Task: inverse folding
């Protein structure tokens, strides 16, 4: 099933002086999908997101919210919610006041505003800290509030730039559930991350970027099939350890068992991490 | 329009939560107005002497001198007793109230800037609230007299300033903005005091101010009292503090990244600046209104013309909104914006009569003052309060203020940096 395009980037270039941050990127984000943008540090993910929301103007190429227009226009931006990678909150306002302020900028007011503020706080599991000043929040809580600001006006398109960095596993889980719920309601999400598990769990499709270019784009399954290589079977026998690359780990295991006493074994299925390593020659997370 | 309002409300909320900003916009101006008004005011009311007891827990030269002054005053009749006796006398209604001078009182009294505060405890018969108010007023007056003496002797004053400066410099827990400001303000005050006697006849010092202001009074109908001079000056400090606070807050929006959020929002760039300007406008109007109301209710200020005063306040606000916008482009970081901003404002104040009234300055200084918006701001307020300005006389200073504001605003908005780096 092909869905309509929500956000279209066509041959987009952006350089900062001599540094080429985005180099001829073309990308269509489909309506209702969660799209993962993966790439090592400096790949150009944030630059792409910033152009998509009109913060940066591409040197070349066009960005269009399909059927609405360019994000240079305020009314187009109203349809986008952004969680910026750099936190952007008022430390001396409470979490609730921050949300309420940004909600007003989005044109919300009265009952609807109060409702949305409550909802957004739930979204990031911050309701119990709503009346505390942001400066008293932990890093992960600020990150969560930053995400709440993105969803306050219930926009059809969400651009989330590493929204869960430093967020603890429980809150992170709740956030994933909520994002998946949004997808069910037809919202479109662009999600950049270094966490492979997140991409694998959340994303319908994943684009892998490096040096400002798109190296591959497909579903997680397809990417793994195409670029992940074969499974690896690690088996320990009385005679020592063996490591076998194989397409059929089960058959291989049976073969090994016939050859001698198996003590332990492990199968490493190809995953995004391996796809990534294969495509970029680098680990996903720069340690 | 809703967005501009939301932006402005957010800024006002932030201003009230920022203790330093709030201090410089409301508290310091009030202090200034009352403080200098009190220093230069004549004698107090003519009621008969109030009988009080003083408990001297300090027992230093300073505290003894203070008690002597109280005793010599027309308002008070003073006994010295220990605390128990004093409480007893008041409880039995033999005395109106008691006053405790705590340890460290003598040392603190002569000091003008910085240092620990001393708390003077007063105890008073609860049934005599009128006397309580009066006692407080009288005490305040005589407390300030110590400071007045300091001003009468510029060298002593300079010594104190330098001591305060050393204290400020070595202090580690002081707020950086307040610290930076004092580090600017104190040396400037010091230099100013160093210059003053050479230009004026020496040794006349400050106490002659009273006479001077009476001279003016003969010429022009004149101010009702010294508060009609000190309040416009105090107001100017508040308006400047406000311009600085909002100018700096624009820089902070950029450095903290919230400007990015505002730019992402479905509003134009001009909305963002308009929101800031609107909040600044409201505050720069609230300061004169609040201070003048207080001045009218409590300090005997009687404006000649309400209409002209309103026109003056609006002109001043417009001018300083423009200056706020200009200040916001002077620095890249909060620190540099604050430092440069206050430097500009302090120079404006210094040459414009915000620190020392213009009419006691030498003639050349009065000429230089024309370039300072502070001078015109004070002039429009004085014009409407006691200089009896006609509408025609108000037009020029108001026009200058609005013009300066407009030019600064345009330059500021054009030069404003929207991104870091
Ligand atoms: N404002 C800027 N000025 C100069 N160079 C920039 C600027 N913003 C980004 N760059 C450069 O552009 C390149 C892409 O940066 P970008 O922030 O888009 O990467 P990213 O994929 O988001 O990385 P990360 O995973 O670390 O967030 C980098 O080389 C970066 O140094
Ligand atoms: Mg990034």
Result:
């Amino acid at each position: 099933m092909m869905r309509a395009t929500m956000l279209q980037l066509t041959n987009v270039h952006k350089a900062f002086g001599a540094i080429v941050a985005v180099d001829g990127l073309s990308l269509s984000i489909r309506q209702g999908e969660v799209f993962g943008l993966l790439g090592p540090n400096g790949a150009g993910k944030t630059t792409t997101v910033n152009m998509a929301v009109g913060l940066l103007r591409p040197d070349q190429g066009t960005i269009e919210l399909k059927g609405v227009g360019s994000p240079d226009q305020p009314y187009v931006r109203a349809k986008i919610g952004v969680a910026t990678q750099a936190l952007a909150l008022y430390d001396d306002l409470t979490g609730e006041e921050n949300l309420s302020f940004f909600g007003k900028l989005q044109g919300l007011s009265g009952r609807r505003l109060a409702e949305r503020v409550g909802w957004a706080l739930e979204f990031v599991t911050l309701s119990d800290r709503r009346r505390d000043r942001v400066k008293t929040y932990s890093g992960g809580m600020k990150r969560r509030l930053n995400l709440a600001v993105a969803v306050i006006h219930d926009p059809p398109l969400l651009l989330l730039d590493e929204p869960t960095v430093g967020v603890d596993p429980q809150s992170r889980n709740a956030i994933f559930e909520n994002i998946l719920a949004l997808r069910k309601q037809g919202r479109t999400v662009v999600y950049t991350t270094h966490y492979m598990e997140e991409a694998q769990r959340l994303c319908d499709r994943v684009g892998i970027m490096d040096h400002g270019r798109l190296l591959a784009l497909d579903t997680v399954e397809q990417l793994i099939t195409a670029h992940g290589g074969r499974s690896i079977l690690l088996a320990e026998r009385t005679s020592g350890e063996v490591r076998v690359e194989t397409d059929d780990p089960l058959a291989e295991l049976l073969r090994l068992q016939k050859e001698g006493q198996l003590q332990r074994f492990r199968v490493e299925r190809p995953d995004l991490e391996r796809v990534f390593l294969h495509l970029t020659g680098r680990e996903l997370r720069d340690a | 329009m809703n967005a501009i309002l939301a932006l402005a409300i957010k800024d006002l909320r932030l201003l009230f939560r920022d203790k330093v900003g709030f201090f410089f916009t409301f508290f310091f101006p009030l202090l200034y107005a009352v403080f200098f008004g009190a220093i230069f005011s004549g004698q107090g009311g003519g009621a008969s002497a109030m009988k009080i007891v003083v408990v001297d827990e300090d027992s230093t030269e300073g505290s003894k001198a203070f008690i002597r002054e109280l005793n010599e005053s027309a308002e008070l009749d003073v006994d010295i007793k220990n605390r128990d006796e004093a409480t007893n006398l008041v409880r039995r209604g033999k005395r109106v109230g008691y006053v405790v001078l705590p340890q460290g009182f003598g040392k603190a009294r002569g000091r003008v800037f910085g240092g620990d505060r001393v708390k003077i405890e007063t105890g008073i018969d609860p049934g005599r609230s009128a006397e309580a108010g009066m006692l407080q007023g009288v005490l305040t007056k005589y407390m300030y007299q110590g400071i007045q003496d300091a001003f009468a002797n510029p060298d002593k004053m300079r010594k104190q300033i330098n001591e305060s400066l050393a204290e400020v410099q070595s202090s580690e827990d002081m707020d950086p903005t307040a610290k930076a400001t004092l580090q600017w303000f104190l040396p400037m005050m010091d230099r100013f005091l160093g210059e003053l006697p050479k230009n004026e006849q020496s040794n006349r010092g400050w106490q002659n101010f009273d006479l001077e202001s009476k001279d003016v009074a003969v010429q022009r109908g004149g101010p009702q009292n010294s508060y009609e001079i000190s309040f416009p000056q105090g107001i100017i400090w508040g308006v400047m503090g406000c311009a600085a606070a909002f100018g700096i807050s624009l820089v902070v929006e950029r450095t903290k990244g919230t400007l990015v959020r505002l730019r992402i929002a479905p509003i134009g760039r001009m909305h963002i600046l308009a929101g800031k300007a609107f909040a600044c406008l409201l505050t720069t109007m609230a300061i004169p209104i609040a201070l003048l109301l207080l001045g009218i209710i409590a300090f005997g200020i009687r404006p000649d013309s309400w209409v002209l005063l309103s026109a003056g306040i609006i002109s001043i606000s417009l001018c300083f909104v423009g200056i706020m916008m200009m200040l916001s482009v002077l620095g890249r970081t909060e620190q540099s914006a604050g430092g440069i901003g206050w430097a500009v404002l302090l120079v404006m104040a210094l040459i414009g009569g915000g620190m020392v009234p213009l009419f006691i300055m030498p003639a050349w200084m009065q000429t230089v003052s024309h370039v300072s918006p502070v001078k015109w701001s004070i002039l429009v307020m004085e014009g409407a309060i006691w200089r009896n300005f006609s509408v025609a006389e108000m037009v020029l200073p108001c026009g200058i203020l609005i013009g300066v504001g407009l030019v600064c605003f345009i330059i500021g908005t054009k030069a404003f940096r929207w991104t870091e780096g």
Q: What stands out?
A: Residues A 45-46, 85, 161 surround magnesium ion (ligand 2) (CB under 6 Å).
